[in-house]
Amino acid sequence: MVLDDEARAALRRTLGDANARVRYFAALTLGKLHDHAALADVTKLVIDNDNHDPVLRHAGALALSRIATPAQLSELATHDSTALRIAAVVALRRLGSPEVAKFLHDEQPFVVAESARAIHDAPIPAALDALAQRLDVADRLNEETQRRALNANYRSGGPDHAKRLARYAIDESRPEALRLEALTMLGQWASPSPRDRVLGMWRPIAARDAANAAAALRPVIGQLADAPGEFRLIAGRAAAQSGIAEGAPVLAKLVE
User: 195 pairs with which residues across the strands?
Assistant: First the structure.
């Protein structure tokens, strides 16, 4: 599609039309044209809509992904409009840009969750470690985001990632089901399932040594000796799978 400057300017003006359908098609068309000059107008469309019309929200995010650069979108992380920040996250997800990780620090849990989904689900491998690190401030994350942060550590597979899972597993302030999931991840560290633990999709992880999981479990396994039975069972199993003897007392408690 080829339009001269005057026609493009007229099209940008229709983003302010009273008819929502006109605004929708104008945003889509400007996106297809990759009209970078329309960035301010599309931004205003998203802000004014304020998430009220989901169709306009979609059109705005799609247009942003086609007319803005990842750097321009990442600058929106500090914008006052929550709707615009969400649209920026969706646009960055479409672009597969690791810049989306900046939105993991947003004050709104929904924006953080959207960013986590972009990184984990798309996926965006270059931003996976940034998501993994957010487990250190799990109290700021909803359970859905915590689960993805757990899996980001599991999939990343380094020594710090294993230690982060172990710390989470013994933290009684965390959801019980997710603490058990962290222990299970440590137990299956050396032979991970080819299916993603959150999405169920086929995402194989290469086999790896259990040493990182063993090193992470060894200092904390004793703290689970007096935990409820299911914790002791899974902790003992994880210790056995990791090849550490320190899990034996935990298992022994099960038959006392």
Answer: 202
Digit-coded pLDDT (tens) for 163-208? 999 999 999 999 999 999 999 999 999 999 999 999 999 999 998 9
Q: Which long-range contacts (CB under 8 A, 24 or more apart) does 228-233 make?
A: 229/254, 230/180, 231/179, 231/180, 231/183
Q: Which residues contact 181 (CB under 8 A, 6 or more apart)?
A: 147, 150, 197
Number of H helices, E strands in the chain: 14, 0
User: What pTM did the predictor assign?
Assistant: 0.92
Whole-angstrom CA distances from 78 to 57, 86, 131, 137 are 19, 12, 19, 20
Q: Per residue in 13-50, pLDDT tens?
A: 999 999 999 999 999 999 999 999 999 999 999 999 99
Q: Which tokens go with 45? A: 């469309």
The domain locations on the chain are 159-256
